[in-house]
Amino acid sequence: MVRIVAVSLSDIAERAGVSVKTVSGALHGGSARMSDDTRQKVKAIAEELGYVTNLAARGVRQGWLPLVGVVSDGLITSPFATEIVRGLDGAARSAGMAVFAVNHRSGQSIGSVLDEVQQFRPRAVAYAAMYHKDVALPDRLAGAVGVMINCREAAGRVTALVPDEEGGAREIVRYLLVAGRRRIAFINLPGILAGTLREMGFRAALEEAGIDHLGVFPAVRRSVYSDRAPSLVASHVEALLKSGQRPDAILCGNDRVAMEVYAALARAGLRIPDDIAVASFDNQVEIASRLDPPLTTMALPHRAMGRLAMEILLAEQPEPPHLRKLPFHLVERASV
Amino acid sequence: MVRIVAVSLSDIAERAGVSVKTVSGALHGGSARMSDDTRQKVKAIAEELGYVTNLAARGVRQGWLPLVGVVSDGLITSPFATEIVRGLDGAARSAGMAVFAVNHRSGQSIGSVLDEVQQFRPRAVAYAAMYHKDVALPDRLAGAVGVMINCREAAGRVTALVPDEEGGAREIVRYLLVAGRRRIAFINLPGILAGTLREMGFRAALEEAGIDHLGVFPAVRRSVYSDRAPSLVASHVEALLKSGQRPDAILCGNDRVAMEVYAALARAGLRIPDDIAVASFDNQVEIASRLDPPLTTMALPHRAMGRLAMEILLAEQPEPPHLRKLPFHLVERASV
DNA sequence: CTGAAAGCGCTTACAG
DNA sequence: CTGAAAGCGCTTACAG
């Protein structure tokens, strides 16, 4: 492609008959003292010449580029990841930073991606995971990562921002109880941290209310949850409906599981929420709001994690590493 | 966060007792001539010191950073956008470039985002749209954008890569015809370029086969398609089923529309594909593969657009601006 | 209020 | 085969 030779401060200086330092001050140094005349003249010439700041040059001087690197496992692919980036991006821009997202490709070590990012001399670096898990950072790089998003650094050396899975599960169960539901089953995502923690919350909330649950069932056969694994959802629902105690509410591991529960319930001729309530986790809007009836679901705090991450990264006073659990929020629709 | 002072080439040079130029040659100049001894020694010291190339410094020298800027309307949010980035990213990495994605926020002019990106002196810049449309680039910036992805530059000044909507519609209709379907209706996305072009393909394919269609209906009321607009899908399906000529196939504007068609058909007690076939556009995997039965749908060439875009951006010989339509591909599942 | 110069960390002619 | 120097476009003490 055609490359127009970029105009530099010295081009402007020459044209304005002033020094480069004066131009720099006029354009970027908000508080630099000079006559208003000079400043206006310089600005006008810069505009006329189509000057665009060269951040690389400033960067080599300052030692860093106004970038916040975000390295994530797998491509920033899910709607959730997008929310994280949205949160980061908003906060970054107000600080004059841009978000530079780099993904590690399968087979690539986390260390090599981190190195790749460091080459650009970002101001700070975050690590973000697609789903809530533990991540082991190589020793030499633990210090280079300022915050973990949606994951915990295995050795606890880095501040981590994660969803409060247990609290979220508690909240949705309480909501079902308030709605008068008493026979509740949970079709959970097996083999992942979120599933384990939510199950704890689920059990705790029911115990607290003195109510027995109808069981916790795995959505798929594989021990680690994966969309590719054969689904067990339909058979669980059928078994549940045939059992002595028919549930009056089914809590689902995510909205896709809920989608299958809806289908199984429709096949059985049951109406939601009249015959049976359905609730879930994720708030994957495209699914949840399109389901009939629209799905009541717990939204993950992805945007908040992103926003808070940027605050931590850009903070003047670094805090000691800690784990911060952010609350889900309930999105009420019509399935309960 | 703690910042370790970065090690520079001169640190290595000092330690190795050679000049900076030798270090630079040993580390980065693949073909630079020097004794193997020197090269090995320099590399070992670089490793030991944890040297990381300073791309900002190299960039100020070369005039550009090894970045390909991608500016898009709205956040890289949809699964489709992700595929574009995936395509770009793969091609970029093989060329030693990183993808730098910047979105324009609502209210921000396209010119100002482009300027923002230019500050980083990227090697090349692409513009990507969330959905197929025409985009007007400001005159002064048309030359700065090397390729349009999923959109056409309004004045045709920039090479544009778009899905072959008309061809895709033709192909899926032919597929329905081969499957023996003869009474086909189309619930289309109104008011967007993709919808208009697909409708042309739909009509052409049926005309070519000498078959009448059962009508083209808008999925939503609003003239511009939006997920927020009230859906008309269910009522179209009901009307279609009640009409004299019941359809044996419904083509849907996208997978979310298909999802609603499934629901309406289920309510009517009709089986897919035995009673009626359903096909669609998008291949939004989370929906299409989760539907029961899994949905046959035309996948958009997003990844291919991304890959090809990078080739165009990085090409030695720039081509004159042209419009390139990339083919959809059929994802056969079980709904036809 | 403004200028001349040094220096950030690289790469690239130019010498030897 | 290797070095010393210039220069990329900035910003920041240091002078005046």
UniProtKB/TrEMBL annotation, chains A, B:
Alphabetized PANTHER family for the sequence: HTH-TYPE TRANSCRIPTIONAL REPRESSOR PURR-RELATED (PTHR30146:SF148), LACI-RELATED TRANSCRIPTIONAL REPRESSOR (PTHR30146)
InterPro entries reported for this sequence: HTH_LacI, LacI/GalR-like_sensor, Lambda_DNA-bd_dom_sf, Peripla_BP_I
GO molecular function: DNA-binding transcription factor activity; transcription cis-regulatory region binding
Keywords from the named record: DNA-binding, Repressor, Transcription, Transcription regulation
HTH lacI-type domain location: 7-62
SMART domains: HTH_LACI
Protein name as it appears in the record: LacI family DNA-binding transcriptional regulator
Top-rank lineage group of the source organism: Bacteria
PROSITE patterns per UniProt: HTH_LACI_1, HTH_LACI_2
Entry keyword annotation includes Thylakoid: no
Keyword tRNA processing: no
Gene3D superfamilies referenced in this protein's UniProt entry, alphabetically: 3.40.50.2300, lambda repressor-like DNA-binding domains
Protein species of origin: Rhizobium sophorae
